[in-house]
Amino acid sequence: FVHMMALGMETALVAARWPWICTMCGQCDAACPMEVPISSMVRAVRGLRDREAVPGILHRGIEQVEKTGNVLGLPKEDFIFIAEDVADEVAEEPGCEGFRAPIDAMGAEYFTTIHNKLINTHTEDLKHMWRIFQAAGASWTIPSDNWEGCNWGLFTGDDAAMRMIVGRILDQMAALEVKDLLWPE
Asked: What is the DSSP letter of 23?
């Protein structure tokens, strides 16, 4: 990738599959002895691709976030039901009696988003995070709208979508009067 960039093969990279299978984890950045910001370069190349040519699930994900505030297209009522159901399971554990998911809590100290997989298929991981909040006695909240913690605009190189997603989160933080963001993505 870096070699192709150095050779000015931008058109070939934009058309290539490779930039879309990179996870953008940043390990290449950390390992590069020349400190080349490879993951930033991958994101920049992704941003050059015509939006209609972005691989299907990613492009559809951005469209869903624009419409519904989350890539799953999960309605607010369903999100609340799942969050409350997971909270009920946490409340059954020793030391967590009476636990409730603080949804849209005004004036909480921390505002946290949720990665779509945690509300969809990995609720056990969500419980771990909530147990930590409980043990710490933290004041926190999750939003019932625009709760998606994965910024697909960032990962697709779509700056406008990235700003929209971040803007929605900041707007909700302001409306709920929360000062600190925990973005677990």
From this structure: -
- The burial class, CB within 10 Å (0-12 / 13-18 / 19+), for 136 is exposed
How would you list the strands of the sheet with 110-112, edge to edge?
140-141, 110-112, 180-182
How would residue 23 be classed by pLDDT, with cut points 50, 70 and 90?
A: confident
CB 141 within 8 Å of CB 176: yes
Record the tokens describing residue 172, joined without a space: 């909700």
| Contact status, residue 63 vs residue 152, Cβ threshold 8 Å | no
- Determine contact, residues 140/131, Cβ cutoff 8 Å: no
pLDDT for the residue numbered 183: 80
Pairing relationship of beta strands 180-182 and 110-112 according to DSSP bridges: parallel
Q: How far is CA 14 from CA 34, 45, 50, 74, 82, in A?
A: 23, 6, 9, 32, 39
Annotate 42-106 with DSSP letters as a single string. Answer: HHHHHHHS-GGGS-HHHHHHHHHHHHHSSTT---HHHHHHHHHHHHHHHHTSTT-TT----BT-T
Angle at 144 between CA 141 and CA 147, to 5 degrees: 80
For the entire predicted model, the pTM comes to: 0.84
Residue 184 in this model has a pLDDT that exceeds 80: no
| pLDDT tens digit sequence for 35-49 | 999 999 999 999 999
For the stretch 25-79, pLDDT in tens is 899 999 999 999 999 999 999 999 998 888 878 878 888 999 999 989 999 999 9
